[in-house]
Known about the structure:
mainly alpha, 58% helix
Amino acid sequence: MIEIAQEELSDYEMGMLNNLRKWIYEKRRKALKVIFKKNKVSKNDGILDIQVKLF
């Protein structure tokens, strides 16, 4: 039987996947920055002080 699947991606496909990976990383970083701006960060341990808003 003939195998249709490729064993490796082409350089173009690898480039496209890397661009997608970088785009996803940038979007996650931007979302984290928004969260940090909205919530107060504890100076002692760097953890978000969300607990204050819950009570």
